[in-house]
Design a protein that fits this description.
The complex is a heterodimer of chains A (604) and B (364).
Chain A: H1 8-38, H2 40-51, E1 52-57, E2 64-65, E3 71-83, H3 91-102, H4 106-114, E4 123-126, H5 131-139, E5 147-156, H6 164-167, E6 169-172, H7 175-178, E7 191-195, H8 196-200, H9 202-205, E8 210-216, E9 222-229, E10 237-239, H10 243-253, E11 258-263, E12 270-276, H11 290-298, H12 307-310, H13 320-329, E13 338-341, E14 344-347, E15 350-353, E16 361-364, H14 365-371, H15 374-395, H16 417-424, H17 430-437, H18 447-459, E17 461-462, E18 468-471, E19 474-475, E20 482-483, H19 488-504, E21 518-524, H20 529-535, E22 545-552, E23 559-565, H21 571-574, H22 576-588
Parallel strand pairs in A: 2-10
Antiparallel strand pairs in A: 1-8, 2-3, 3-4, 3-5, 6-7, 8-9, 10-18, 11-12, 11-23, 13-16, 14-15, 17-20, 18-19, 21-22, 22-23
Helix pairs in contact in A: 10-22, 13-15, 13-19, 14-19, 15-17
Chain B: H1 5-9, H2 13-34, H3 42-62, H4 65-70, H5 72-89, E1 100-102, E2 105-107, H6 109-126, H7 135-153, H8 158-174, H9 179-199, H10 203-213, H11 223-236, H12 247-250, H13 262-295, H14 299-323, H15 341-359
Antiparallel strand pairs in B: 1-2
The chains are: A alpha+beta (604), B mainly alpha (364).
């Protein structure tokens, strides 16, 4: 029998050990209570953000159609070659093989990888890849599973440079734009409208991007789709443009620089619009390369500028019909009163010359318009004085933007003593009124303003020029035409003179068999005498800008247009032939019927 | 091998039941942690290891623990030899030399060294007849255990190496080591730690400690494990996301999910309720082991049971605290739950020794 050891002291200490174990377990339990019950929501959110990734579904931008439903701007599928570096087991070899397959250098590929916004996101190695590259990557699917091809809608302009300034272009949203409220919902890297209708209607055209909420594993690979909100396509815009008339206008402008716009004088619908030189907006669809961008920006002829609404020129003699309306309305002339033209007007210690040095003799309004007699309009201007000239000019829409639905429109300038005192801090000289009376001096207009004023001469009402007819099939309501409140007889007198311009005057090149065309030529001096001496008379840039405004037919006019050919010389020689081609095309083809007004708009 | 009927009467059924439940929960959790991966058959390997472990447990329980303790010097010497062999000639796997390859099977000797150390410490302190022990009294045993610990730490395997410290301290305290002496020892430890920080710790070990202090320092690197484990635990909530449904587990965000972080799997899928049940089972096992030490008929038995309980206790508390982000990440398996043949085998052998002590509390 063995003697039992005295273990009491050990046993007492073991009781302490049990208590220590119990206490430690209690501490652990409290810790788990804290994490799992008290902070459950916080960690659940973290687990969700681990698990769920939002993949945007880009909404295709809305299409642009011409008034007859012909496609002007569309989206074409394009292929981007992607690489997700996190999925690669050996990135160096992947990059080398990809470089080989695509014929790119490795440094470029690495730069693309470094430029992506976040880890686990695929980097776009080549945007809008040609089919051969797509095939090369697809063929290596098994050896390079970390590469992929995505299909994204890309903006396409089948007309290329035609109507580029009306349609506009897209480009990646800039950092400055991102700071603006209008682009608050736009993610960096998104392509937005940057010019023309693309910019003006960007909010509508973008539609609403959808999102795929996908479950991803710890390697970032998609395991399942948790939720899908489909994108809402941007609505289709139906434009007022007529693609075939547009093509005729583009053809007529080949070899010329300047701009032209044709509109429906009753409604203000713009039928065709061009600004030359132009550019191909397709070059911007994937993000313009810096070389192309620099050459466009650095071009002294400024191809990115929309001359129709941003070019500001002296109207020259095309201002005379407006001047005539003012003088008739104020009673300083009548349709039959005459002025004697000796070939010059000597007034305010200055001699103002007529376009015909030997003079027109005794001349009435009709003939004064037809032969563009300066002296007649000098006299009218002197009698009207500058304030009244300015007031009537503004009534015809000069001196302020027309409000056409294009961004960055210039307002032109209607000079007045008040304006001159405020801006130039000098008083008005009476002699300046004489220059303004024949569309020179400080008076500046855009071709869009002149086209609208021409339409007003044609129908007696000032319309709202616009390019969008309907959004997603619903007609857009534009402000109605404003009646100008002139005596119809005065209009008839001016129109008769304008018809003579084409029938027997300087605008004869716009004559059209069977259609009575009313027009007015003009030329705007572009250089001072001193500059002319410096550049030499042979330099193209000293040639005046040639203007031609016209509407037709005289009764119930259906088209009004303004053409400006920069440095083209006289309007009759440079601009009237362009108008002729457009009018010839317009009156030979049937115009598609107008979209009927919505039923609600027709009051009983 | 004949087992006395009287011994069988004293077999600790409740302890066996608790260990069985823990092992079962472990197999089920391993299945859930690996079902979506290429390692979906690990649960079966774990079951095999448990089967082998039960066999080993029966063998160990059937031999009188005093006879085993008498052979403690032999086990100690064998441990030194095997650890040295592994350290110098063992295969390098994942940057460490922890493994012994025997006929196609990989064994981690350090797991078994813990048992040898428990026997050795129990034997040495049982021979001391003093009521109070000073530092000088425990120095030889401490040095011997320290040597084992260093060999394991050199593998490197800091977690397991550190397990020997609570084992030694617990038994020394039970044997009468003055608390004041322990404090002095702790001071030495701090000094040694400071020296070790400067000279011995490798960069990855240092970064683990840094990132423990602030996991967000390196959310994709060393802090990743702690962050993801906390997310798994915290998002589990009261009742969990459901067995097999934890997103952290199933989508692979949780690292080492079938081994060191298995408790995180359980916490995510079964929630605070599951955590409470498993912690209660562990508390019961430890309580029962310490009770066995109280009931032991002699010091060797008491020290042996308490020493094994101390290593278990340390591993459970440390591992669970690590999963909750309370202590730095160390490669330390959770007994009975974590996947790993050596761990399962050694843990069940340890239970065998505890059963052994309880069975023989009345025997001669």
């Amino acid at each position: 029998m063995r003697i039992y050891e005295d273990l009491r002291a050990v046993q007492d200490r073991l009781v302490v050990a049990q208590r220590v174990v119990g206490a430690l377990m209690a501490v652990l339990l409290v810790a788990f209570w804290y994490l799992q019950v008290l902070n459950n929501r916080y960690f659940l959110e973290l687990a969700e953000s681990n698990r769920i990734r939002n993949v945007p579904l880009v909404a295709p931008r809305g299409l642009l159609l011409d008034r007859g439903g012909r496609l002007l701007v569309e989206n074409r599928p394009s292929f981007n070659i992607l690489l997700t570096p996190e999925h690669s087991e050996d990135l160096d070899s992947t990059v080398a093989r990809l470089a080989d397959a695509l014929g790119m250098d490795e440094a470029t590929i690495r730069a693309r990888i470094a430029a992506r916004p976040a880890r686990f996101r695929p980097a776009v190695i080549r945007a809008d890849a040609p089919f051969a590259d797509v095939a090369a990557v697809e063929a290596r699917r098994l050896e390079l599973p970390e590469t992929g091809v995505e299909v994204v809608p890309l903006r396409a302009y089948p007309l290329q440079a035609a109507a580029a300034h009306a349609l506009g272009r897209v480009g990646e949203v800039s950092e400055r734009q991102l700071e603006q409220e209008a682009f608050a919902m736009v993610a960096p890297g998104t392509f937005i409208g940057q010019a023309g209708l693309e910019a003006r209607y960007n909010a509508e055209l973008m539609g609403r991007d959808g999102v795929r909420r996908v479950v991803v594993n710890s390697r970032g690979a998609e395991v399942a789709e948790a939720e899908r909100t489909p994108p809402v396509d941007g609505p289709t815009l139906t434009l007022t443009l007529d693609a075939s008339l547009q093509a005729a206008l583009e053809r007529a402008f080949v070899g010329r620089r300047g701009s032209a716009v044709a509109l429906d004088p009753e409604t203000g619908e713009i039928l065709a619009l061009t600004s030359q030189p132009a550019y191909d907006p397709n070059a911007f669809a994937t993000g313009v390369d810096s070389g192309t961008w620099r050459s466009l920006i650095g071009d002294p002829m400024r191809p990115l500028m929309n001359r129709v609404i941003q070019g500001q020129y002296s109207p020259g003699s095309t201002f005379k019909p407006i001047e005539a309306m003012a003088a008739l309305a104020e009673g300083v002339i009548t349709p039959t009163s005459t002025v004697y033209c000796p070939g010059y007007l000597s007034i305010y210690n200055t001699v103002f010359r007529c376009n015909r040095p030997e003079g027109h003799g005794s001349i009435d309004l009709r003939r004064a318009l037809a032969v563009s007699c300066n002296v007649y309009f000098y006299q009218a201007g002197v009698r009207l004085e500058i304030e009244r000239i300015a007031r009537y000019s503004r009534r015809f829409g000069l001196g302020s933007p027309t409000g056409v639905d294009l961004p960055a429109e210039s307002s032109g300038l209607v000079p007045s003593p008040e304006w001159k005192q405020r801006v130039l801090k000098t008083p008005w000289y009476a002699g300046e009124t004489v220059s303004v009376a024949i569309g020179q001096g400080q008076l500046n207009v855009t071709p869009m303003q002149m086209a609208r004023a021409t339409a007003a001469l044609a129908v007696g009402r000032l319309v709202q020029p616009h390019l969008v007819k309907a959004v997603a099939g619903r007609p857009v309501e534009w402000p109605p035409a404003q009646d100008l409140g002139f005596d119809p007889a005065h209009f008839e007198a001016v129109r008769t003179g304008m018809c003579d311009v084409v029938a027997a005057g300087s605008g004869w090149r716009a004559r059209l068999p069977g259609v009575e065309v009313c027009g007015k030529t003009g030329s705007a001096q572009v250089v001072t005498r001193a500059r002319l001496q410096q550049l030499g008379p042979g330099n193209e840039l000293v040639q005046p800008h040639g203007w031609f405004i016209a509407f037709a037919p005289r009764e119930r006019p259906r088209i009004a247009l303004a053409v400006l050919v920069e440095n083209g010389g006289s309007g009759g020689e440079a601009a009237a032939p362009v108008a002729h081609e457009v009018l010839a095309h317009f009156f030979r083809v049937a115009v598609p019927p107008r979209v009927p007004a919505p039923a609600a708009a027709e009051a009983p | 091998m004949a087992i006395d009927r009287r011994l069988l009467q004293n077999l600790d059924g409740p302890l066996l039941l608790a260990v069985g439940l823990l092992s079962g929960i472990g197999v089920a959790t391993i299945w859930s942690a690996t079902k979506a991966t290429a390692f979906a058959d690990l649960y079966f390997k774990q079951l095999s290891a448990i089967g082998l472990g039960v066999l080993g447990m029966v063998v160990v329980a059937s031999l009188d623990y005093r006879r085993l303790a008498d052979r403690a010097p032999f086990f100690y010497a064998a441990s030194l030899v095997v650890l040295s062999y592994v350290l110098f000639f063992g295969p390098r796997i994942a940057g460490t030399r922890r493994w012994l390859v025997l006929g196609g099977a990989q064994l981690q000797p350090s797991e078994f060294v813990k048992l040898a150390a428990a026997l050795f410490v129990a034997k040495i302190f049982a021979e001391s007849r003093k009521d109070q022990l000073g530092l000088r009294d425990v120095m030889p045993a401490g040095a011997a255990i320290g040597l084992l610990s260093l060999l394991i730490a050199a593998a490197p395997d800091l977690g397991t190496a550190f397990c020997l410290v609570p084992l030694f301290l617990t038994v020394a305290l039970l044997a009468g080591l003055r608390v004041r002496a322990v404090l002095l020892l702790a001071l030495c430890g701090v000094l040694l730690g400071a020296l070790g920080w400067s000279f011995a710790l490798r960069d990855y070990q240092k970064s683990r400690i840094y990132t423990f202090l602030d996991p967000n320092l390196d959310p994709r690197g060393a802090g990743y494990q702690t962050i993801q484990s906390q997310i798994a635990v915290g998002s589990g909530g009261l009742t969990g996301k459901g067995y097999g449904n934890g997103s952290q587990v199933q989508l692979g965000y949780l690292p080492a999910r079938q081994t060191d972080f298995i408790f995180s799997v359980l916490a995510e899928e079964l929630g605070f309720v599951g955590v409470s049940v498993v912690l209660a089972l562990y508390l019961f096992v430890l309580w029962r082991a310490l009770e066995t030490a109280q009931l032991a008929r002699d010091r060797v038995g008491a020290y042996l049971a308490a020493g094994i309980a101390a290593t278990f206790g340390f591993q459970v508390v440390y591992n669970v605290a690590m999963v909750a982000g309370l202590v730095p990440v160390k490669g330390l398996p959770l007994p009975f739950l974590s996947y790993g043949g050596s761990s399962v085998l050694a843990s069940l052998l340890g239970i065998g020794l505890i059963l052994n002590v309880r069975m023989r509390r009345f025997a001669n």
